[in-house]
């Protein structure tokens, strides 16, 4: 038991990269092919520059062996930079001396170390240290190391395109397998999947350490899983698993079993997935508590997919207990899956799927309370919506309505917060790109300075260097221009998406509250049965609307269903004011067309509330969907109501503003969508007839993809 406990404590210690070099003390010449090993099982050798990197943890024993000098043993204390100087003695043999590099004599390495310290906490400060290090760089090797660390900064802050650029510059200065693996990972995260696979395949596997080889196979598997090449992903993961088992790399054995299980889930082979998940869960329990909780949550998600809600609930409750134990030592942000609010929400959802409404309500309320304490608006919003649905299914309609109104308020808060986050991210990206441009300019300036220096030594050679420097400067400018263009394009897309979400969020509450007023009027008239029937149909409509609220386009078939349900609700209230008819041309294949959600509803709402409602005689609303061209359909909405001119005269000043704002939202949505999807939607509005009640005619033209 004591041995097992000690093993668990060791596994919980953080691993880090130890860098070092082996040189001759009198000449400073590097010594290649020196054997480097740590007691934890990792192994590597020095490269042609006499340098090495190896994964270790505090307390590991570092062993340095070579045929020409005595073996050196050293206990690792931190992620220090280690240097071995081999000195000749009187018999021309070597003895070694181990010590840490000092900041007073190695300015460049000190600056790089400082950059790594601030990498995860202060991106701007870390980049500034790298810029200062590049000024003091005296070799291509140091340039390569500086750009590698700069790539690491951008990888951590999810600026993957910039990470790719800097890893490539690092490799151009000096190619190492470590940076190649990082470049391949950056390509994958930047969605350059073929470039990622090409980079992985270009690496000589015989030159890799055991750990690096496992990481390479894992990376190849990740790319293939992302591109849904599942068989290739399984082959790569199994190759990595074989190496990890052979060399007892326990953390990777757990990770690869888990990833193989996830691939089988994606393939729909649940039984195979279950076997690998059982293995990963068993292995994760022997590691630190955090890793064990992560795996329990993955398996719980798998049980949810299998509809095994009892097993899911049991695993999530165990995870909750473990989270409460490790929360005091680890801080989890709201993006992490290891938060109690997310697990309580998923437990409540599982109970709801089992129709155990009492337990579902308890856990959902816990989730809402914890999310509120931790300012997790996303979980609070989702849990509140689910609570409203559970209360409704449990027959507690009043409480369900209150919960739903809270959900509507939370939706507005979420959109407001998202808008702020996008603005902050834009400012951060702008600052990062600015600093990257300054570093690229520094590199260009240094190339030009070297050219001027060489001019005094050799004229012919200098002319070539100037030409190459100018070409390099142009390439750097082109890269900078490309990065700026990509950033602007991404920002414009983000702004358009945010604008669409904002406009949809403004439209949804408008007709929701109109419908709730209808329910209120039925209740006020003591027509409870009618109110219940109306509320039931209204809940079906709202569920469909919320399901589609995040989409720019939905299938035309779904929009027609929403249209029929909404028109039915309006007719339910104003039976004595109008009849309606919805016709779809039988020749139209509705599955070929898509349409922005909630595009047609406001026009129908205007027809009923501002045209037909004020008509002295019973009116008629007609909705016709026809096809005149193979790639185009027309949706015509006509009513014989009092018309726009009379309706405007009847409105109060406030009503006119509200209607203007509602129609303005539609115009903005259409404008943004046409800009993004090349004039896909066209809308025209005119009078329907020349009689006293002129009515209104709306024609929506929709083009096929």
UniProtKB/TrEMBL annotation:
Q: Read off the Gene3D superfamilies from this record.
A: Carboxypeptidase-like, regulatory domain (2.60.40.1120), Histidine kinase-like ATPase, C-terminal domain (3.30.565.10), Tetratricopeptide repeat domain (1.25.40.10)
List UniProt keywords, sorted A-Z.
Kinase, Membrane, Transferase, Transmembrane, Transmembrane helix
Is-annotated flag, keyword Cytoplasm? no
- Which positions fall inside the Signal transduction histidine kinase internal region domain? 500-578
Would I find Transferase among this entry's keywords? yes
Q: Which SMART domains match?
A: TPR
Q: Which GO terms describe its cellular component?
A: membrane
The cross-references to InterPro entries, in alphabetical order and at most eight, read: Bact_2-comp_sensor_kinase (IPR050640), CarboxyPept-like_regulatory (IPR008969), HATPase_C_sf (IPR036890), Sig_transdc_His_kin_internal (IPR010559), TPR-like_helical_dom_sf (IPR011990), TPR_rpt (IPR019734)
Q: Which domain of life is it from?
A: Bacteria
GO MF annotation list: phosphorelay sensor kinase activity
Regions crossing the membrane: 465-485
Report what the protein is called. Answer: Histidine kinase
Record organism: Hwangdonia lutea
